[in-house]
């Protein structure tokens, strides 16, 4: 796992995950989430609490597979995560 | 009139195709994607708080009304995922929701909502519908999970949020408690497009939430003393009389209080008494009045096949209205129908009027003119015929009385009124025959 200025970088199933303080990127695209004492929550994976932003990233990557997903105009996601 | 929402597993092929067609039409005219947007943009209004049930109830109601504006026969079906809990369940057939997505990218390749079919392009989180059955959680909720949730009271508990250890029915069924469970678990199990806040992109969302809505109704029926809570103390939009968004901003006040009773919103579920087909002989004292849903439950041609058990047409087990449109006594003008149709050998066989084997007997031309020829010669046969006639007369009289009672209350359709008139004619003819036999004369005798 590469560490740079507080950003942890790792690769999971061919995708690059970057984890920082209150920040998560997958293949350079930001994933919004909220974090409490008990869990991490994101509208990207809207029906479960995760233990950490890394766990969130891994769940999203498992769900996406090889898909190149287009955001469109749907609110709440922000940006594209096509890969 | 209440519309009945059905278990998707009981839908006919026609019902499925009509539902799918209505959904596709709603997608084509842009309405469907507005529902997706509302769900994305108002997640906080709809989830992780007490308004989870009422918000989705209103949301589904509006979509159902939009579907019915396209096809008035359509209602939202529900998916009981504790029963239909595998990728092989009929809900995932190519004639309905389509199946799982392919392993590489989760793209759904079959069914009417496959991207390749050309009618279902996702505007957000797209462009194609994705599913990933069992990837993030391997199983759907079980009947035991559901039973435990339905037994949970009260409706909600402070601080009325999504705490992983928070009790209460809402948080338990929504699935944050020791999650993902129940509602949440289904979203996660289906995966793909059902995972993010744009989950209505997958039409199975509405079948899933229809079941969630039904479960709320079931819980309310199980716990009539429990009320929606809280009145205050929850986030805005989640208290009992708070207007819910987005409808409040669009000029319509919809509160949790205003949607507590789903019957007032115009629908019920097929497990409720109001939607269940009635058992004609057990539930109904009036044969023809009760069964407004006869044509829903039974094709009309079977109406009198049902009547076998009441001995209405003891000698005519065929489908009377289809097979024999004429009244019994018009069919058979030359004979005494009630006597001729008794299956006992003695009456069917003029050469053996008492039955029991070969016995010489005079040839009898069985017409009303010759009724007395054999009735005098064989008095036992006459008494038996009279008894049978009297039994039929009693049955018909009771039936006519019930129908006339229903008619007085305005409960008969035009077709049923015609049936009543036919019954009256048959009764009159039967009575005349009884009188003739009793007096020793027959119609037509001089």
Give a verbal description of the structure:
The complex is a heterodimer of chains A (83) and B (446). Helix content of chain A is 14%, strand content 39%. Chain A has one helix and eight strands. Chain A has one helix spanning 53-64; strands at residues 2-4, 7-12, 15-20, 23-26, 29-30, 34-35, 40-42, 45-50. In chain A, strands 1-2-3-4-5 form a five-stranded antiparallel β-sheet, covered by helices on one side. A three-stranded antiparallel β-sheet of chain A has the order 6-7-8, covered by helices on one side. Chain A is globular. By secondary structure, chain B is mainly α. Chain B has 17 helices and two strands. Chain B has helices at 13-28, 31-41, 43-46, 52-70, 143-150, 169-174, 182-190, 204-222, 280-283, 294-297, 320-323, 328-331, 337-340, 345-348, 371-377, 379-408, 414-439, and strands at residues 3-5, 267-269. In chain B, helix 1 packs across helix 4 (52-70) and helix 4 packs across helix 8. The chains are: A mainly beta (83), B mainly alpha (446). The interface between A and B is medium-sized, with 27 and 41 residues.
């Amino acid at each position: 796992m590469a560490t740079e200025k507080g950003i942890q970088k790792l690769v999971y199933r061919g995708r690059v995950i970057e984890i920082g303080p209150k920040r998560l990127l997958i293949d350079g695209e930001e994933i919004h989430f909220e974090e409490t004492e008990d869990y991490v929550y994101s509208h990207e994976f809207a029906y479960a609490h995760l233990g950490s932003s890394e766990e969130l990233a891994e769940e999203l990557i498992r769900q996406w597979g090889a898909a190149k997903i287009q955001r469109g105009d749907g609110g709440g996601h922000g940006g594209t995560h096509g890969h | 009139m209440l519309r009945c929402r059905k278990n998707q597993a009981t839908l006919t092929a026609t019902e499925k195709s009509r539902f799918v067609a209505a959904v596709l039409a709603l997608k084509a005219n842009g309405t469907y994607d507005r529902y997706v947007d509302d769900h994305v943009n108002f997640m906080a209004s709809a989830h992780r708080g007490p308004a989870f049930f009422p918000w989705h109830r209103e949301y589904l109601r509006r979509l159902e009304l939009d579907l019915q504006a396209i096809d008035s026969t359509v209602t939202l079906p529900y998916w009981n995922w504790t029963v239909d809990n595998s990728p092989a369940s009929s809900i995932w057939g190519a004639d309905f929701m389509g199946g799982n997505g392919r392993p590489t990218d989760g793209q759904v390749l079959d069914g009417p909502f496959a991207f390749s079919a050309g009618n279902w392009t996702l505007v957000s989180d797209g462009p194609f519908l994705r599913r990933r059955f069992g990837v993030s959680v391997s199983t759907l909720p079980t009947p035991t999970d559901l039973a435990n949730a339905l037994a949970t009271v009260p409706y909600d508990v402070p601080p009325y949020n999504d705490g992983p250890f928070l009790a209460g029915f809402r948080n338990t069924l929504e699935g944050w408690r020791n999650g993902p469970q129940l509602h949440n678990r289904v979203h996660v199990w289906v995966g793909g497009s059902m995972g993010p806040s744009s989950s209505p992109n997958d039409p199975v969302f509405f079948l899933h939430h229809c079941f969630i809505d039904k479960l709320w109704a079931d819980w309310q029926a199980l716990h009539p003393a429990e009320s929606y809570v809280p009145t205050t103390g929850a986030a805005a939009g989640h208290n009992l009389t708070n207007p819910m968004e987005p409808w409040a901003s669009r000029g319509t006040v919809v509160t949790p209080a205003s949607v507590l009773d789903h019957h007032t919103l115009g629908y019920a579920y097929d497990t409720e008494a109001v939607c269940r087909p009635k058992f004609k002989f057990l539930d109904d004292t009036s044969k023809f009045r009760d069964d407004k849903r006869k044509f829903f439950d039974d094709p009309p041609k079977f109406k009198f096949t049902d009547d076998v058990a009441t001995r209405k047409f003891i000698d005519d087990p065929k489908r009377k209205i289809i097979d024999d449109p004429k009244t019994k006594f018009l069919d058979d003008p030359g004979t005494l129908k009630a006597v001729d149709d008794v299956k006992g050998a003695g009456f069917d066989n003029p050469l053996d009027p008492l039955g029991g084997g070969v016995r010489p007997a005079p040839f009898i031309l069985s017409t009303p003119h010759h009724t007395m020829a054999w009735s005098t010669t064989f008095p036992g046969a006459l008494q038996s015929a009279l008894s049978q006639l009297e039994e039929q007369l009693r049955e018909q009289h009771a039936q006519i009385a019930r129908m006339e009672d229903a008619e007085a209350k305005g409960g008969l359709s035009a077709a049923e009124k015609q049936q009543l008139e036919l019954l009256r004619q048959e009764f009159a003819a039967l009575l005349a025959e009884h009188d003739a036999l009793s007096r020793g004369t027959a119609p037509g005798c001089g």
